[in-house]
């Protein structure tokens, strides 16, 4: 072997030793790619060593070439083994530092882990919603869900709001660029229920709704409702009243006095506003009932024949009753909460009072 060839072989062996040390001492995964490039990359050390090949005989070339290829595959193997060991270390560390055990109470966390050790709590609106769901499912109602980003059809059109209906004004909302809207009420699920279920049917639809509102102590842009609807052969206002009584007595755990007033909603005929005697002042008058002794909690009515028809049923055969419960307001009455904004903020001293 010529001295040139001997030198190239030495260079290759030295490079191998150098790379070996670099890989062994690498501290993080990202430096492995640097090691690979500086050794095997286009501008790397091996490339410059191999520039010396030009002056060699064909036999020497093939011998050095072979050594160079061996180096390449050696380096690739070492790098991938090292990469795996980094991954193993990563998961070992993760298992050591970031575990927590939720099967015991209070949950156990590793030393120094920044996490509240307090038990999670259920939001007051969810507590009341869960109770309402229990009451209604025990009376044979199904719970339906619907999208919060709705079509104009489901939110308005199917509920007998014509395109230029003035009642749309009272429920201004947020529109998307694709002409969808954030639903203004859970009544939007009525048409979905009518289309997808077979009559007779009893449904409730708890959920989040949105309005374009000036936010203050009694108005929020995001709040919760629970829609209820029954469809059957003969449905009357007395069915509706029975449901409303049951609902309020169960929620407040006492006989609640109610009164009906006429109310207008395009999707019911007749439509009512149902008020309950203010529980905060017992009817004497206070800020919650605006000094009237009554609080508006349950708009309701008999489902308009147009709604039944649009839902695909024959209004000559099927009748319905519906109500739209404002969950926030109900929970405010239940607990004497004076400001609706408490529900949406993250004030723990408010949120931790309910369970
Ligand atoms: N969707 C109405 C609103 O949010 C409330 C409502 C009124 C629902 C009458 C009903 C109803 O089902 O019959 O203002």
Helical amount: 25-40%
CATH topology of the largest domain: BirA Bifunctional Protein, domain 2
Number of helical stretches of at least 4 residues: 11
Going by helix content, strand content and strand pairing, the class is alpha+beta
Q: Taking Cα atoms only, what radius of gyration do you get, to the nearest Å? A: 36 Å
Low-pLDDT sequence parts: none
Bound molecule kinds, no repeats: 3,4-dihydroxyphenylalanine
Quick recap:
40% of the residues lie in helices and 16% in strands. With 355 residues, the chain is of the alpha+beta class. A hairpin with a 5-residue loop joins strand 6 and strand 7.
How would you characterize the overall build of this protein?
The protein is of the alpha+beta class and 355 residues long. The chain has two domains: 95 residues; 228 residues, Bira Bifunctional Protein, Domain 2 (BirA Bifunctional Protein, domain 2, 2-Layer Sandwich), CATH 3.30.930.10. 40% of the residues lie in helices and 16% in strands. It has eleven helices and ten strands. Strands 1, 4, 5, 6, 7, 8, 9 and 10 form an eight-stranded mixed beta sheet that branches. Strands 2-3 form a two-stranded antiparallel ribbon. Strand 6 and strand 7 form a beta hairpin. Helix 2 runs antiparallel to helix 4. It is elongated, with a radius of gyration of 36 Å. Bound molecules: 3,4-dihydroxyphenylalanine (DAH). 3,4-dihydroxyphenylalanine (DAH) binds next to strand 7, strand 9 and strand 10.
């Amino acid at each position: 072997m010529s001295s040139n060839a001997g030198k190239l072989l030495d260079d290759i062996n030295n490079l191998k030793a150098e790379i070996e040390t670099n890989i062994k001492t690498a501290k993080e995964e990202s430096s492995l790619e640097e090691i690979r490039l500086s050794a095997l990359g286009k501008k790397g050390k091996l490339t410059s060593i191999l520039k010396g090949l030009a002056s060699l005989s064909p036999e020497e070339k093939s011998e050095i070439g072979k050594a160079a290829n061996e180096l390449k595959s050696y380096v690739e193997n070492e790098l991938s083994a090292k990469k795996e060991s980094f991954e193993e270390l990563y998961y070992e560390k993760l298992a050591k530092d970031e575990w927590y055990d939720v099967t015991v109470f209070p949950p156990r966390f590793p030393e120094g882990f920044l996490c509240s050790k307090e038990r999670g709590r259920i939001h007051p609106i969810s507590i009341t919603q869960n109770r309402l769901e229990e009451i209604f499912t025990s009376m044979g109602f199904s719970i339906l869900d619907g999208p919060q980003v709705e079509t104009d059809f489901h939110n308005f059109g199917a509920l007998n709001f014509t395109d230029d209906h003035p009642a749309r004004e009272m429920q201004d909302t947020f529109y998307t660029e694709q002409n969808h809207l954030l639903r203004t009420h859970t009544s939007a699920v009525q048409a979905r229920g009518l289309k997808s279920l077979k009559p007779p049917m009893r449904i409730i639809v708890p959920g989040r709704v949105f309005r374009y509102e000036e936010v203050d102590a009694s108005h929020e842009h995001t709040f919760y409702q629970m829609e209820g609807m029954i469809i059957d052969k003969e449905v009357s206002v007395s069915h509706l009243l029975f449901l409303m009584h049951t609902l309020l007595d169960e929620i407040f755990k006492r006989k609640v006095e109610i009164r009906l007033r006429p109310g207008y909603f395009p999707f019911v005929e007749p439509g009512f506003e149902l008020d309950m005697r203010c529980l905060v002042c017992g009817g004497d008058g206070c800020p919650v009932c605006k000094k009237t002794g009554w609080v508006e909690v349950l708009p309701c009515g008999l489902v308009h024949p147009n709604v039944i028809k649009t839902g695909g049923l024959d209004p000559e055969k099927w009748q319905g009753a519906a109500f739209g419960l404002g969950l926030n307001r109900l929970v405010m009455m239940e607990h004497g909460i004076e400001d609706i904004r408490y529900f949406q903020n993250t004030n723990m001293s408010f949120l931790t009072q309910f369970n």
